[in-house]
């Protein structure tokens, strides 16, 4: 653990688990700009510590290193979690809230390695909640996923829609939400909890200096298109052209990473002035886009050609999925502002400026 004391004591201190990852890094940047002190805990299993330099640079804050503590470690390490909370207290900066991104997120990997997903995602979260409780820290925002809904019965998906995950990854997110439900009911403790059910986060910081740089091979649409665009992959395989949609390809609700990051700031600000509560919120734009629409928009705004071919449907895919985001709009001082064009432009800018990611 890097030992370094903060000099500013009036600011709130946020523990960001998984803060070096795709969503965590963009959120950490906004947290710093909003004036929060950060403790980032990350194992770097799927991220590069170099991202912290970019976060610092983009923050434009003088002596920003005094406001970020970077700890390499695992959320399953309860002793480490206890040391982090103790250390923050000793330094007169007790942790006020936690944003919990750390976890495993690949659907296909979760089907191959279910123990890892239950251990990291579920057990890791239980340990974190236990250490928080011990330290009287009761404010948490958790990265949930639209995957928990499974095959939608009705669209758009509302927070009250059936929770019916169809893979191990989704099961672990749904299980964590159940744990949150139980924990939030304990009357003697004043938990303030938000689970954000992300739809499809894409894009990058508009400067092109921060973006998605997974170490584990991604099989998501946007990183794949970017890799085709840069010539690392020959062509995009579109999984099915016979879905019951207007052009035969699947429809999803893509949301720009900066809009998603902003939803965490709005959630944190909301929780810090709330009494105890548990809120589950869909975080999407509310607009569904087909795979072909994405390809065409990417080509148009970036003035390039994405070769593609249609192949068999991917196992476990669903035809259409998009959010009803009204609950988030009404509770939070937040609304998505970035367009599909922005998502395509920023993804490509990041890829072009950083062909090897942060390396
Ligand atoms: P990411 O892999 O880029 O970030 C996760 C971070 O957690 C990485 O930096 C990784 O090194 C770290 N990590 C993994 N296991 C850890 C452990 N045991 N201890 C400490 N750190 C660990 O993923 P992301 O896209 O930024 O996703 C963040 C969260 O949002 C995850 O919980 C994910 O399940 C959830 N989510 C992501 C998406 C998406 O499409 N990106 C959609 C819905 C939900
Ligand atoms: N997709 C595709 N080719 C790819 C990757 C994804 O056709 O190489 C499609 C996939 O079938 C889905 C959509 O793009 O309909 C979004 O896939 P992604 O994995 O990004 O998100 P998710 O399936 O989790 O919504």
Structure description:
The structure is a single chain. The chain has 359 residues and is of the alpha/beta class. It has a domain at 13-201 and 254-284: 3-Layer(aba) Sandwich (Rossmann fold), CATH 3.40.50.720. It is 38% helix and 17% strand. The chain is built from eleven helices and 13 strands. It has helices spanning 22-33, 51-59, 78-90, 107-112, 114-134, 168-184, 221-229, 257-272, 291-302, 326-331, 340-353; strands spanning 13-17, 37-42, 68-72, 95-100, 139-145, 192-198, 200-202, 236-239, 251-252, 254-256, 277-283, 289-290, 308-311. The strands form four sheets. A seven-stranded parallel β-sheet has the order 3-2-1-4-5-6-11, with helices on both faces. It has a two-stranded parallel ribbon with strand order 7-10. It is globular and about 60 Å long. The model is unreliable at 1-9 (pLDDT under 50). The structure holds nicotinamide-adenine-dinucleotide and uridine-5'-diphosphate (UDP). Uridine-5'-diphosphate is lined by residues 200, 219-221, 224, 236-239, 250, 252, 291, 314, 317.
CATH fold-level assignment of the domain at 13-201 and 254-284: Rossmann fold
Report strand order across the widest sheet: 3-2-1-4-5-6-11
User: Which CATH architecture of the domain at 13-201 and 254-284 would you pick?
Assistant: 3-Layer(aba) Sandwich
Number of beta strands? 13
At the first level of CATH, the class of the domain at 13-201 and 254-284 is Alpha Beta
Q: Look at the structure and name the CATH superfamily of the domain at 13-201 and 254-284.
A: NAD(P)-binding Rossmann-like Domain
């Amino acid at each position: 653990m890097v030992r370094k004391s903060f000099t500013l004591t009036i600011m709130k201190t946020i523990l960001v688990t998984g803060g070096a990852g795709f969503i965590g890094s963009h959120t950490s940047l906004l947290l710093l700009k909003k004036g929060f002190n950060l403790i980032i805990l990350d194992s770097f299993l799927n991220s590069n510590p170099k991202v912290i330099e970019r976060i610092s640079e983009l923050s434009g804050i003088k002596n920003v290193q005094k406001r970020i503590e970077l700890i390499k470690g695992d959320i399953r390490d309860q002793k480490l979690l206890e040391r982090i909370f103790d250390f923050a207290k000793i330094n007169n900066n007790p942790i006020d809230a936690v944003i919990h991104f750390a976890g495993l997120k690949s659907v296909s990997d979760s089907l191959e390695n279910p123990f890892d997903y239950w251990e990291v995602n579920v057990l890791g979260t239980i340990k974190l909640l236990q250490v928080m409780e011990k330290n009287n820290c009761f404010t948490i925002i958790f990265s949930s996923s639209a995957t928990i809904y499974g095959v939608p019965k009705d669209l758009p998906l509302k927070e009250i829609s059936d929770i019916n995950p169809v893979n191990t990854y989704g099961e672990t997110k749904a299980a964590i939400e159940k744990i949150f439900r139980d924990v939030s009911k304990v009357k003697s403790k004043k938990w303030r909890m938000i689970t954000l059910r992300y739809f499809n986060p894409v894009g990058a910081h508009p400067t092109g200096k921060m973006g998605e740089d997974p170490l584990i091979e991604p099989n998501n649409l946007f990183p794949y298109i970017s890799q085709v665009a840069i010539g690392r992959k020959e062509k995009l395989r579109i999984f099915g052209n016979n879905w019951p949609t207007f052009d035969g390809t699947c429809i999803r609700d893509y949301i720009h990473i900066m809009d998603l990051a902003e939803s965490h700031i709005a959630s944190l600000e909301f929780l810090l002035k709330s009494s105890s509560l548990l809120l589950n919120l869909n975080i999407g734009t509310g607009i569904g886009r087909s795979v072909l629409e994405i390809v065409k928009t990417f080509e148009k705004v970036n003035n390039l050609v994405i070769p593609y071919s249609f192949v068999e449907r991917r196992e476990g895919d669903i035809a259409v999925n998009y959010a009803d985001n009204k609950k988030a709009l009404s509770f939070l001082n937040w609304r998505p502002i970035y367009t599909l064009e922005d998502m395509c432009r920023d993804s490509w800018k990041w890829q072009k400026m950083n062909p090897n990611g942060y390396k």
